[in-house]
């Protein structure tokens, strides 16, 4: 086995290097001021580009604020719709259940550009283009499938017995929801929330079309720099992107751990 | 129906369609092959190590837009690999380095998908491998199977439904994604989603009908793939997660 083990390690770690090394190289790029052609390392290092990105006239703060606001609102809206939908799909047997389940996954499979162009017209009629609400709605279309999928699995595993028992012991609807259902689905809820946050945070073309250029988010600030070849500025935005995403992941992981430590409930 | 006839009557539509299929297919086949190799490599690791696995999955949370920059930074004519080639005296100047981004062969676009999809395929296949691994491997070993036989006769057949569904998922994504070909694709060769966008944002608003025709075609193909996917999922369920037959 040792020969196989060594080969496995070799393959695994070269793949690992291919994943991580480019990101590190991008990190170098954020502090590069000059990097003339044949050189393999930058000739002048400076904080200039990082400073440029965070300069007050760059609208980075506004874009980051918008991005986070939209991502948070999208996550809330997603959970609000996904929890009841997943519960119905996971627990109840009804006609056309398989079809609805497949339809719920559709926005994952049909390209986002197609869905967005299709919804653009309705959005214009409803006066939602160019508004935060419009962007939140279009993002929710793409976060819902992930959330419904994760939560449907959770409900399928849990079954209904805990809720029924609570009700038999005289709990009101609200108490069941607050003290039984939500704590039981919390891990699924958190992972659905992280997914939604990340998906919303990285949307470009949907925000661009529905926001009509009036709603500025980080991806919208970032793409023009990519097109104009200002790669250093783009690299700084990239790291801002990655750090925010990893931050969101870390918060959720922490929350899951804390939740499991504090809870006395049976784990599903 | 006039617009359908108009759009579908153009050879440029079919060229675009074939081009899209080519890009998606190459990206999917290569990423699935390497992803499966990666999954087996993970299985063969001696210690269950948490951090390396975390970093291996890192590309999953790196947005496509960022990967576009990575590819540009590494593979453009003045990118790191071009500099490396210069150092090795393979090229005399930047222009000698082959065009790998904005190129008709869509190498840049494909590289972005590979970076994102190889770890994705690995993680899913590894998940299935984890649930079938131990007992089957032991039985096969006891019966005198070699490593290669173990992989080709035991693991791969059990993995087939998983691989099929992952293949379809990655294919659909590469087929319909807009941002990557929009930013890294050749200006002369449009993949279908980009073609739809070009029609859609034309100043002449009557072109929106053509955009919608392209969109409908993309949707029809995607839905076909979804149906295939659900069949694959069904197949996987019937095989009971590959474990207890």
Q: Strands, helices and their partners?
A:
The complex is a heterodimer of chains A (268) and B (245).
Chain A lengths: L1 H29 L1 E3 L9 E2 L2 H7 L5 H32 L5 H13 L2 H14 L6 H27 L2 H8 L4 H29 L3 H7 L6 H10 L3 H32 L6
Antiparallel strand pairs in A: 1-2
Chain B lengths: L1 H8 L1 H34 L5 H7 L1 H4 L2 H12 L4 H8 L19 H36 L4 H30 L2 H6 L7 H9 L7 H31 L7
Helix pairs in contact in B: 1-11, 2-7, 2-8, 5-7, 7-8, 8-11, 10-11
CATH homologous group name of chain A: MetI-like
Broad structural category of chain B: mainly alpha
The domain count of chain B comes to 1
Helix and strand composition category of chain A: mainly alpha
Return Rg of chain A in Å. Answer: 23 Å
And the CATH topology of chain B?
MetI-like fold
Helical fraction of chain B: over 70%
- Which stretches of chain A of 5+ consecutive residues score pLDDT under 50? none
Number of separate structural domains of chain A: 1
User: Strands across the major sheet of chain A, in which order?
Assistant: 1-2
- The share of residues in extended strands of chain A comes to under 5%
Largest interface: A-B, 52 and 62 residues
Strand element count of chain B: 0
How many DSSP E strands of chain A? 2
The CATH topology of chain A is given as MetI-like fold
**Uncertain regions of chain B: pLDDT < 50 for 5+ in a row?**
241-245
What is the gist of this entry?
Chain A has about 270 residues and is mostly helical.
Report on this model:
- With 268 residues, chain A is an all-alpha fold.
- Chain A has one domain (58-262): MetI-like (MetI-like fold), CATH 1.10.3720.10.
- Chain A is 78% helix and 2% strand.
- Chain A has helices at residues 2-30, 48-54, 60-91, 97-109, 112-125, 132-158, 161-168, 173-201, 205-211, 218-227, 231-262, and strands at 32-34, 44-45.
- Chain A has a two-stranded antiparallel ribbon with strand order 1-2.
- In chain A, helix 1 (2-30) crosses helix 11 (231-262), helix 4 packs across helix 6 and helix 6 crosses helix 9 (205-211).
- The longest helix of chain A is centred in the N-terminal third of the chain and has 32 residues, at 60-91.
- Chain A is globular, with a radius of gyration of 23 Å.
- The relative contact order of chain A is 0.12.
- The mean pLDDT of chain A is 85.
- Chain B is an all-alpha fold and 245 residues long.
- Chain B has a single domain, classed as MetI-like (MetI-like fold, Orthogonal Bundle).
- Chain B has helices at 2-9, 11-44, 50-56, 58-61, 64-75, 80-87, 107-142, 147-176, 179-184, 192-200, 208-238.
- In chain B, helix 7 packs antiparallel against helix 8 and helix 8 packs antiparallel against helix 11.
- Chain B is flat, with a radius of gyration of 22 Å.
- Mean pLDDT of chain B is 83; it is low at 241-245.
């Amino acid at each position: 086995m040792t020969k196989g083990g060594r080969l496995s390690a070799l393959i695994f770690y070269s793949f690992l290097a291919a994943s991580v090394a480019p990101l590190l190289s991008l990190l170098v790029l954020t502090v590069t001021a000059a990097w003339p052609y044949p050189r393999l390392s930058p000739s002048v290092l400076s904080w200039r580009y990082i400073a440029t990105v965070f300069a007050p006239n760059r609208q980075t703060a506004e874009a980051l604020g918008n991005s986070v606001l939209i991502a948070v609102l999208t996550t809330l809206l997603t959970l609000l719709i996904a929890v009841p939908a997943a519960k119905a799909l996971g627990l109840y047997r009804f006609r056309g259940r398989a079809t609805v389940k497949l339809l719920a996954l559709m926005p994952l499979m049909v390209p986002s550009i197609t869905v967005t162009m299709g919804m653009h017209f309705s959005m214009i009629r409803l006066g939602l283009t160019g508004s935060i609400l419009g962007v939140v709605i279009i993002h929710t279309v793409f976060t819902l499938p992930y959330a419904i999928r994760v939560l449907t699995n959770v409900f399928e595993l849990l079954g209904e017995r805990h809720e029924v028992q609570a009700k038999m012991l005289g709990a009101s609807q609200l108490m069941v929801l607050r003290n039984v259902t939500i704590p039981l689905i919390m891990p699924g809820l958190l992972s659905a929330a992280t997914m939604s946050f990340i998906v919303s945070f990285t949307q470009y073309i949907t925000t661009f079309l529905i926001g009509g250029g009036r709603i500025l988010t980080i991806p919208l600030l970032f793409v023009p720099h990519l097109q104009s070849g200002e790669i250093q500025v783009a690299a700084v935005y990239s790291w801002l992107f990655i750090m925010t995403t990893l931050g969101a992941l870390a918060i959720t992981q922490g929350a899951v751990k804390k939740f499991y430590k504090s809870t006395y409930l049976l784990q599903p | 129906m006039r617009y359908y006839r108009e759009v579908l009557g153009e050879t440029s539509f079919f060229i675009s369609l074939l081009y899209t299929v080519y890009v998606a297919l190459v990206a999917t086949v290569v990423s699935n092959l390497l992803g499966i190799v990666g999954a087996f490599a993970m299985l063969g690791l001696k210690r269950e190590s948490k951090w390396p696995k975390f970093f291996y999955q890192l590309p999953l949370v790196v947005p496509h837009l960022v990967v576009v920059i990575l590819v540009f930074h590494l593979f453009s004519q003045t990118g790191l690999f071009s500099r490396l080639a210069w150092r090795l005296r393979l090229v005399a100047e930047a222009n000698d380095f082959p065009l790998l981004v904005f190129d008709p062969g869509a190498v840049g676009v494909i590289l972005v998908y590979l970076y994102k999809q190889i770890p994705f395929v690995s993680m899913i296949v590894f998940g299935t491998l984890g649930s079938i691994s131990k007992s089957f491997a032991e039985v096969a070993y006891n019966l005198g199977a070699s490593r290669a036989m173990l992989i080709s006769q035991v693991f791969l057949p059990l993995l087939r439904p998983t691989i099929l569904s992952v293949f379809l998922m990655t294919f659909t994504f590469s087929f319909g994604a807009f941002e990557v070909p929009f930013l890294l694709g050749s200006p002369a060769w449009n993949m279908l989603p980009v073609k739809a966008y070009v029609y859609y944002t034309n100043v002449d608003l009557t072109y929106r009908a053509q955009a919608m025709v392209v969109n409908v075609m993309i949707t029809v193909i995607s839905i076909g793939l979804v149906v295939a996917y659900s069949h694959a999922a069904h197949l996987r369920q019937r095989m009971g997660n590959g474990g207890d037959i």
